[in-house]
Amino acid sequence: MRVTRIQGETVGLCLLLSAAVVIAARLAGFAETGAALGAGVLIGSLNGFTFQAVLDRRAPILATSIVRLAFFSLLVLLVWRWTGWPLVPLVLGVGVAQLVMAGVGARQGSRA
């Protein structure tokens, strides 16, 4: 599997965003919620790598999208069960990471 610039930038931005969210939430008195949101962002940042693996294997995108959605849902549920953090911020964090990836991709696409 090759790592493209979009995945690298997405993970880097998500790491920064996650750290900022955790720090800001802790300062505001919502440490557990911030940790959950930050963890969700980190989990979601990995989606680009799974999508690249699908493209590299020339697998059908629709069918594998369902599998990837199930995989990330299961991962979020496992983190929720293991940590006891609130579930909604974990799920929202995954969504935020997808928005970051879309933004990075759009920015790079507009350069081409």
Kindly summarize this structure in a few lines.
By secondary structure, the protein is mainly α. The chain contains 5 helices and no strands.
How does the SSE layout of this entry go?
Blueprint: H1 5-28, H2 31-44, H3 47-56, H4 61-83, H5 87-111
Features:
112 residues, mainly alpha, 5 helices
Describe this structure in words.
The chain is built from 5 helices and no strands. The protein is mainly alpha-helical and 112 residues long. It has one domain (5-94).
Number of H- or I-type helical stretches: 5
End-to-end gap: 23 Å
N-to-C series of helices and strands? HHHHH
Q: What percent of residues adopt helix (DSSP H or I)?
A: over 70%
Major β-sheet annotation: none
pLDDT averaged residue by residue: 93
Q: In percent terms, what proportion of residues is strand?
A: under 5%
Shape: flat
Broad structural category: mainly alpha
Number of strands: 0
Uncertain segments are: none
Radius of gyration: 15 Å
State the domain count. Answer: 1
